[in-house]
Amino acid sequence: MFNSLSDRLQDTFGKLRGKGRLTEDDINTAMREIRMALLEADVNYRVVKKFVAECKEKCMTAEVLESLSPAQNVVRIVLDQLTELLGTTESKLVLAQNRTPNVIMLVGLQGSGKTTAAAKLAFLLKRQGHSPLLAACDVHRPAAADQLETLGNEIGVKVYRGDGKDAVKVARESIQSAVDGLNDIVIVDTAGRLQIDEQMMQEAVDIKNAVKPDQVLMVVDAMTGQDIVNVVSEFANRVDFDGVIMSKLDGDARGGGALSVREVTGKPIKFVSMGEKPDSLEVFHPDRMAKRILGMGDVVSIIEEAQRVTDQKDIDDAERMLREGFTMDDMLTQMQQIRKMGGLKKILASLPGGERALEQAGGAVSDEQITRIEAMIHSMTKQERAKPKTINGQRRKRIAKGSGRSVQEVNQLLKQWSEMEKMMGKMRQLTNGGGNSRKARRQMTNMMRNMGMGGKMPF
Amino acid sequence: MGMFDSLKRGLARSREALSEVFYMGGEVDEDFWEDLEDRLVMGDMGAEVAMQVTDDLREQAAREGLKSARQLRDALARRLAAEFAKAECDPFEDVPSCVLFVGINGAGKTTTVGKLAGVARSEGKSCLIGGADTFRAAAIEQLEVWGQRSGVEVVTRERGADPASVCYDVLDRAEKDGTQLVLIDTAGRLHTSPELMRELEKVVRVTRKRASIPVRVVLVIDATTGQNGLNQAKEFNSALDLDGLIVTKLDGTAKGGIAVAISHDLNLPIYRIGVGEGIDDLQTFDAMDFARALVGEGEGE
């Protein structure tokens, strides 16, 4: 598997340590690493060439060469450059204000995930208070309309099927159906087509002319390789889409194609789709994508996700924890929060180096462990949860029996708790001793560093 | 039409790309090598493979005194063809046989099953389709349409049923009828999802255990897939112990270079390649033809 680019560059520059300053050759070596990393991420070859040349120029300044940590500087330049290329701002759906219904049309290759994306988009819009209608204009693939209808039923969105023969007609009629049914947005799902299939491309153009969509979105599989450039430029020429939905980003593909799409067509990525569930369509964040392409993890997403699942009660709990100590109930809450955020694996995988750590552990870090811990805590009495220190041998035996785990596992859990309690204790000292003192602040920083990714963070 | 012709048609654009390199007046200089490496990378062969192939070819050129672009092209085609694993059997011809189709979402499993059933039927083989994709909405309906088109019966269960039990039913039925070719479609899944991979492991285990005829597990892979394809294949292989590959959607401009890497790294033969929409466009794979089409042999001569 790939190492993350930052690790690789650290290795490269590590060999040069003690040389005082870097030479052009050293930068060339680094650029070769970057080139490989980008190619492994399926960024188009031409885009890579241009990108690397630009990066090199920026890295050749004295500021970088003579800095104390050239590796980190180079990574930062690459990352900034990449983010800039991907588009510096998030790009939202643009719908005409004075038009009802608004129309969104989806196009793409076969198997890129259009139908699934259509349902997800409908779900997202519905959650935002719209009343979407799905139009099943894939009249070519057997049972495509059935698929859309099933998905529509699951999320409670109406599907217009028409006669299921003439895609253009179905599309046109769906608009009328939306007017009659008081739907304010129509999402037109079309058949998958190859960009060189003249007849099918014409059909897409015809549908577009018939319904005059506010937005045409192209669905692109994150796993697509070098060919993505041919595909998107042809679609851009013929159908002219407004933005891209990247699908299947829940796999381990780096999605370098996103960069190619942006560079070649200038069209922004608007959404990323990451799973089977209807709520797994997310707004695209260029900076996070840049990190993913370089294999640097997605810390921001985790934090946001954590914020989303944390409500006021949790914040109060945190305060109480600091005041009164860390109970087993708190531990339970934490476990449940990890669950809410999509499981341990998702969180770990989005941390820098986390993917590799996961691999080394052989996937042993499983959500089953969380389930076990939950079972054990559930087998404790209220008093035991509040004061785990009172759990003696007898009680351990009972808890083990109650949860179907071994006494050793109960012991392990108690040990984990006491570690966490110790850490809380340290924090308590800090807050009590006045957060302003310089010593306290230094301790806090140290502790943060000890808590995890300290040396690993690229900046 | 033979495979070479359709492939040539299908791979037209990639052929153009590589041929360009070989038509630069026959001069072989530093630019030539660099360009060649670029082109191979652009065919999704992967940066490392491309570098290695170029270096090898360079060495060979020096050793054997290959100077003209034409000679080099032949050498390159042979070199690439040698990367492919050889098939010991053809699971769709050597009947009785049971084939399980696995792969990620949207690779073209269901369509491939439908086409293969049609081919088997037109060749007069008795055939049975198993619909073990009980997860995706309307997957069963899609398969049933294919079944009707080719006149092949589809055995399946309702959506949400246990896929392994569907396989059991299918094999039960096949045994009773003495069916020659059993094709089982499974739900697409990402190789990064441990739960779904475990489910598939069970499906394969049950099928292998229940079947009295040889069972082959075939990974269906989309030709447009990039470097992630190797990860996919590795994961599926380590979980299911694959027997071979089918590469679909080679009729676009995608070069399917990742197939070279997968076939070589995992020593998996390619059973079929999809070069078009029609039923006959699913063809047997010939390494030399594929490699020749890829490097652009037989053009403009």
From TrEMBL, chain A:
Quaternary structure and interacting proteins, as annotated: Part of the signal recognition particle protein translocation system, which is composed of SRP and FtsY.
Organism in which the protein naturally occurs: Parafannyhessea umbonata
One Gene Ontology term, aspect cellular component: signal recognition particle
Pfam families assigned: SRP54, SRP54_N, SRP_SPB
Protein's GO biological process: SRP-dependent cotranslational protein targeting to membrane
Entry keyword annotation includes Cell inner membrane: no
Protein name listed in UniProt: Signal recognition particle protein
Catalytic activity annotation: GTP + H2O = GDP + phosphate + H(+)
Domain named SRP54-type proteins GTP-binding: residues: 268-281
Coiled coil residues, start to end: none
Task performed by this protein: Involved in targeting and insertion of nascent membrane proteins into the cytoplasmic membrane. Binds to the hydrophobic signal sequence of the ribosome-nascent chain (RNC) as it emerges from the ribosomes. The SRP-RNC complex is then targeted to the cytoplasmic membrane where it interacts with the SRP receptor FtsY.
Subcellular location: Cytoplasm
Superkingdom of the organism of origin: Bacteria
Domain topic, free-text comment: Composed of three domains: the N-terminal N domain, which is responsible for interactions with the ribosome, the central G domain, which binds GTP, and the C-terminal M domain, which binds the RNA and the signal sequence of the RNC.
Gene behind this protein: ffh
UniProtKB/TrEMBL annotation, chain B:
InterPro entries xrefs: AAA+_ATPase, P-loop_NTPase, Signal_recog_particl_SRP54_hlx, SR_rcpt_FtsY, SRP/SRP_N, SRP54_GTPase_dom, SRP54_N_sf
GO MF, one example: signal recognition particle binding
Domain AAA+ ATPase: 95-252
Residue intervals of the Signal recognition particle SRP54 helical bundle domain: 7-84
Membrane topology recorded in Swiss-Prot or TrEMBL: Peripheral membrane protein
Class of this enzyme: hydrolase
Gene3D superfamilies found in the cross-reference section: P-loop containing nucleotide triphosphate hydrolases (3.40.50.300), Signal recognition particle SRP54, nucleotide-binding domain (1.20.120.140)
Primary location group: membrane
GO biological process entries: SRP-dependent cotranslational protein targeting to membrane
Keywords: Cell membrane, Cytoplasm, GTP-binding, Hydrolase, Membrane, Nucleotide-binding, Receptor
List of residues binding GTP: 103-110, 185-189, 248-251
Entry's transmembrane regions: none
GO CC terms: cytoplasm; plasma membrane
UniProt-listed Pfam families: SRP54, SRP54_N
Subcellular location: Cell membrane; Cytoplasm
PANTHER family: SIGNAL RECOGNITION PARTICLE RECEPTOR SUBUNIT ALPHA
Protein family (similarity comment): Belongs to the GTP-binding SRP family. FtsY subfamily.
Protein role: Involved in targeting and insertion of nascent membrane proteins into the cytoplasmic membrane. Acts as a receptor for the complex formed by the signal recognition particle (SRP) and the ribosome-nascent chain (RNC).
HAMAP family cross-referenced by the UniProt entry: FtsY
Name by which UniProt lists this protein: Signal recognition particle receptor FtsY
Lineage, opening ranks: Bacteria, Bacillati, Actinomycetota, Coriobacteriia, Coriobacteriales
